Amino acid sequence: MPFEPKSSQTRQWIIETTAELFNKKGYAGTSISDLTTATGMTKGAIYGNFENKEDIAIAAFEYNLQARINIIRQELEKATSYRDKLLVYANVFRPSRKFPFPGGGCPMQNTGIEADDTHELLREKAAQALEQWRRMLENLVNKGIAAGEFRPGTPARRIATSIIALAEGGILLQGVSRKAKDLELALDTVEEIINGISV
To answer: Which region is the signal sequence (predicted)?
Structure first.
C-alpha cells in the first residue's frame, strides 16, 4: 500500500521547520529528537507525514535548493544582457550582498559532501542539481555567443564548470576560514572569466 501523508499543510510545515536543520547538521547529524524539538511534534506525528527520516531529508534538500534558485532567478530577471546574467553568479554569492540564502550554506555542497560515501540517493539529488546549474550556465554562454556578446568558440561547458567550481570552492573556503575575503577572491575570478570572454 503506497504511503500517503496525513496533511499537505503539516508536511510543508515540517519541511520548512527542519530544512535549515538538515542543511546545517546533515542527514546523519540530524536526529529524530532534533526533528521533534524543531517542530514541536511527536515522532509519530512526524512519521505520519513522512515515510522515514530519508524522506524528510530529501524534501528539506529540495526546499533549500528551491529557495536558492528563487533568489538567483529574481536576480537573473533584472539582468538585460547575457554578460550581466552570468555576472549574477559572481555577485549573488558575495557576502556583502547578504541575500537570504538557506541557513547553513550551499545545500548542494553540504549534501554532496556528506552523502558522497554515505547516502547514494542524497548524493544523486545533489549531483542532479549541480548538473542542472551547469546546463543553465552553459546555455547562457551559448546564447551570449549567438547574440555576439561572447567570443565565438568560447568553450561553454568549461566556462560553466569553472564558474561553479570557483563559486562553490569560494563558499567552502569561506566556511572553513571564516574569512569573507576568500569567497570574494574566488568570485572576483569568476568576474574576470566572464569579462575575458566578452567582446
So the answer is: none
